[in-house]
Amino acid sequence: MALKIVKGSIDRMFDKNLQDLVRGIRNHKEDEAKYISTCIDEIKQELKQDNIAVKANAVCKLTYLQMLGYDVSWAAFNIVEVMSSSKFTYKRIGYLAASQCFHEGTDVIMLTTNQIRKDLSSPNQYDTGVALTGLSCFVTPDLARDLANDIMTLMSHTKPYIRKKAVLIMYKVFLKYPESLRPAFPRLKEKLEDPDPGVQSAAVNVICELARRNPKNYLSLAPLFFKLMTSSTNNWVLIKIIKLFGALTPLEPRLGKKLIEPLTNLIHSTSAMSLLYECVNTVIAVLISLSSGMPNHSASIQLCVQKLRILIEDSDQNLKYLGLLAMSKILKTHPKSVQSHKDLILQCLDDKDESIRLRALDLLYGMVSKKNLMEIVKKLMLHVDKAEGTTYRDELLTKIIDICSQSNFQYITNFEWYISILVELTRLEGTRHGHLIASQMLDVAIRVKAIRGFAVAQMATLLDNAHLLTGNTQRNGICEVLYAAAWICGEFSEHLEDPMQTLEAMLRPKVATLPGHIQAVYVQNAAKLFATVLRKHDGETESQAAQETSQLLIDRLPLFVQSANLEVQERASCILQLVKYIQKLQQKNVEVAEEVTALFAGELNPVAPKAQKKVPIPEGLDLDAWINEPPSGSESEDEKPKAVFAKEEPKHSRSRHTEVDEKELARRREVRKQEQASNPFYIKASPSSQKVYDAPGVEHIPVVQIDLSVPLKVPGMPMSDQYLKLEEERRQKEKAERKKKEKKKKREKRGKERKADSGPESEEDITPAHQVDIVTEEMPENALPSDDDDKDPNDPHKALDIDLDKPLADSDKLPVRTHRPEVLKSPAEDRDGESVPQETKKKSGKEKKKDKEKDRKRSKEEKKKKKKPKEVEEELLESQPEEAVQSEETKEAAAPPTSTSAEASDLDFWLSSAPVPPAAQEVTAPSSSAAAVDTSSAAAPESEPDEPKDTEPEDTKSSKHKKKKQKKEKEEKEKKKKKRHHHHHQHHGDAGGEDSVQNGTVEEEEPLPPMSNYSLLAENSYIKMVYDIQGNHQDESKVVVSVIFENKSDSFLKAMEFNVLDSLNSKLQRPEGAGAHDSLTVPFQLPPGVSNEARFVFSVQSIVMPQKLKGTLTFIVKSDESSTHEKLDFKLHFTCTSYLITTPCYSDAYAKLLESGDLKGSSLRLEGINMPFHHLLARICFHHHFSVVERIDSCASMYSRSIQGHHVCLLVKTSDQTVSIDAKCDEPSLLGNVLDEIKQTFSKC
Amino acid sequence: MIKAILIFNNHGKPRMSKFYEHYTEDTEQQIIRETFHLVSKRDENICNFLEGGLLIGGSDNKLIYRHYATLYFVFCVDSSESELGILDLIQVFVETLDKCFENVCELDLIFHVDKVHNILAEMVMGGMVLETNMSEIITQVEAQGKMEKSEAGIAGAPARAVSAVKNMNLPEMPKNINIGDISIKVPNLPSFK
């Protein structure tokens, strides 16, 4: 008792937690909804409290309620609050809730950007992990754009746990923000070789997803994946890779040849069924891709089919299912090898498992031949009768139709049989596929002329028995066939035996219960029948029959004139007037039959469904041009002038005549009303009108009540089974005849070769029962052949169709957070007005290719003009990730400027080498991956500075190219030329350069002059060295010095050694075990005219003062006749600027920083600066690593941070030619030196 | 890609649902209902794949499910996933649950759906398989559990005491309703490492 009291009071003190909620719901089974609504009220109260623990608890409960189907989006803001809690426990609750209920439409999502960014860079790996997991569920295009760079940084995190999550989430980022694919791809590729198997598997996963949609862009990765496949032991990774190869082989048959052997080995060796199955699948894909060229893979096919048979015969239903699935793939190219297992497949049709039956059905599709079609369909019809579930039965129905109609009715020998099958199918209750049967009926009747007589007879019977089809509301789907039946009877009415009877059937009052579009067809075709009847009685003077027909129409049509459906109403009133007029003429004994028939003269030909779309646009016709002056303003946006011809569905054309304007309609209605008023036959609508209509001629229609649960044999309908027998007999007869003939022949031509087909009858022997003329569908003259009809323009993956082998251009950078994103435009965008990836997204097919070429050209031009690309090395990336992506997008100088062809040829080389012995493979693999490094021109794994590079790229390439055709040599020459050109610019360090995108230096006004941060280190007649120093914000005591060595001589430079005399403050980082004065080997050699970049890491202690270090480079000059040892001294100048790192800063944070009062000020005045303000800012940003925080007219605030965390703030103002800079920094001497350096920069220009 | 992961019991009551594409709550419930309808009428010894593509996405999708005692574990995946692989993943998932809850039963899932989500988050992320190694998953889950406990510290003590008190009155404390055949292994399938 006491306990109960205590518990009660505590209950009031502490809110319900999740367990209590669940328990409560379980205890209130009867009034669950009521209980939950009180709980939600409680939760709302809890959410109003300030205590984050209470809020988190409430959000946790909401997550549970969301699962039960309650909308909790109203609490979105509270979820964001809980997400931003500093405690992991609550944060996790918040992110879980967000991942369950946030989506692109959630508006508070934009509030989360900074919180997520903070969590991503949290020192606690689980904070980061939880944020990544959550983000993967609700990432939006905005989030993807804003966070892409942060996630990219995480891909090189020290913890594999974070790395694998970061790698995996990149896929989602790519989907939402396709522009990020190119800049991020090199690093993703790098992760394929991550030491951690989890990260590796994640990278494989992502690339497989990407490649599945756009395989051709990933072909160049094949060698890498091949290596992984032969080395990996992780089944997950293997399965993914093998699946990926399955997607790649159709594009590159030579890849298939290479794959067959390792795959068959895997098939023989693996014990994992899943792996075996995927191997078989890929072998099948390979065989399909090879099927045209190489017939000698029958062994592999046999192996596959044999393995699959084992799977199908297995007692495990899962394996059986998969076996059938794979079998259906073989069927497409090697039907013969599957057909021998027909017994097994037919057996599976009787399986108790629906999934398996469906798979077996798929297989049947490919197994039919002229010979066995009827037999197989008969079996299927039996199943149709037996099937219980409508889904399976519908599936059977579509399969029967598919099987029969495949490849233009290729296997149908007897169309009467097919028509009767279709008619039998109309007896299916509640099927959704009425329209499918209808379209088949129409198709056959129109295209097979010989069958029309029979088809019309059948359709007439169907119409006569229409009440069987429509009687039950459940059977509504099937009434679609009446549409076809009515049309066929009307159009080909000359074949009707008793058109009068059919006409009567079509005008029964019950027809009015059919859907409108069917009634419309009824009315129209009644008119056609009317014409036929008239013609039949043509010549008979004062024909009673003809007049009776007119009277019948005049009696019955008013029912349709009343229809709610516009189409029906319009057609009916039209025809009614026509008939009345005819009746008048008949009464005057005028011959009308001929004229009425002329209304419906002419034959309708089948037209291909896509014909309209393929009509070529005549020359000189611009569909986008305005016909009249465009209306002003908003109106024009609603109209879509483009769609008029291309996109309109055929259906629209029918309803087009209803688009007459209102006035016209009103006028017509008025006319009709008057007409009706004066018409004695017109009966005005009244409650009892139905009876009145029914009165004439209805009594003699037999109305039979039939129990519809029993499938009926429609009276007078031939059964398809009969045909089977007939067909058999016919074939027997034919066979016998043929044999006779052959015997005769044999007797005549004895000694001549015997025909091979005396055994079981072959395909060609079966002659169709009717001389069948299958009319092909019409297409417009000179229709445009195009394959892209079926592409879905909304597919998100289309945007990811991006050429990844192309070197990165200026525009391919991830945006970095800035306060004002509008200044984020890259130079390329600026010049062309549109960004490259966006452009590619819009183009399709061939155009795209052209575009790519254009892009490439453009990027070439850019490079010539201003860019000096260098390679970002792994080392730098790891130490300084943000920087690397933002602006220091660099490229190895030795790499050719455009090398997609080289990339392709490397792949060629890898593929062309027929099964290589392991040793040789060892050689090719690294070289091709080295080539990949060259060509992708971005962060790719680079060898450590002290480890000699395995092959000199130029060398391998030239040796490879020897094997290739002349054309490629030409390309190579061109490439070299370009390369020279490219280097030429590098001679003058200031001619090439790059802009920092991040700094937003580019504005619409004027393009910036090119800039470079590289300054001359030393130069002599052999070699020239330029260098740049960058800080590293993850390690406060390290800077990276990038030195470009350029060989100016005609000789080969090798054994280059780099040494620096360390000072107390700055030391060159040497590998472990090396002495303090040892020199570092430059990890490459330089052929004449080539340059390359090496990086050296220095450790520094104090950064407030600039300093200089003396150093020496020694190298061997090797020419044809001699070799000499040379040396070059240099001075490395560590400026204070080089310790600054471009760090973006928000204006509010910036304001706080200035208010804090920790910073000491200093100022600087520059006179005679004659350059636009944005150029000035750009220079400061670029040369001194600042970022613009805010800019108002001719005043800007800028920010930067040193590697040791000093804040440097600048306020730059300009008036006339004077620039004043007010600066603040927490370290005065650093600030003084930085200002001096800025001054120097501007004094130079 | 995995499109959705659903756990519901023999009566179709959802025990956990995770959709990797956005649907409204109503659609989600409908999907769960229809999936249950499809799955529940199937016999025990027929294949574990179902072409239920009508529910989520196009015909490219498949339902791959396993039935353990009172619970159905259903994964809706597209063609880029290996069918047998996913079956194995379900097995890993259930075994992981079994380890984390010590003899898992339906009631564990009912009362600790958040924990189930957290375990799942270590296996599948955004519809893609993140980790298949059970011991790695358990290590990460336990490390996070530890963190949570250390954060709760003294502040969490009264709450724990309260819930202990609350549980005293409970006749049906969720334990020991075992999922009998939880240790069923996929025939011929060595677990992925």
TrEMBL record, chain B:
Its main location: membrane. InterPro entries: AP_complex_ssu, AP_mu_sigma_su, APS3, Clathrin_sm-chain_CS, Longin-like_dom_sf. GO terms for cellular component: AP-3 adaptor complex; cytoplasmic vesicle membrane; Golgi apparatus. GO terms for biological process: Golgi to vacuole transport; intracellular protein transport. It is a peripheral membrane protein. It comes from the Eukaryota. Residues 1-147 form the AP complex mu/sigma subunit domain. It is found in: Cytoplasmic vesicle membrane; Golgi apparatus. Signal peptide: none annotated. SUPFAM superfamilies: SNARE-like. Keywords: Cytoplasmic vesicle, Golgi apparatus, Membrane, Protein transport, Transport. Part of the AP-3 complex, an adaptor-related complex which is not clathrin-associated. The complex is associated with the Golgi region as well as more peripheral structures. It facilitates the budding of vesicles from the Golgi membrane and may be directly involved in trafficking to lysosomes. In concert with the BLOC-1 complex, AP-3 is required to target cargos into vesicles assembled at cell bodies for delivery into neurites and nerve terminals. Belongs to the adaptor complexes small subunit family. PANTHER family: ADAPTOR COMPLEXES SMALL SUBUNIT FAMILY (PTHR11753). This is AP-3 complex subunit sigma-1. The lineage of its organism: Eukaryota, Metazoa, Chordata, Craniata, Vertebrata. The gene is LOC107566394.
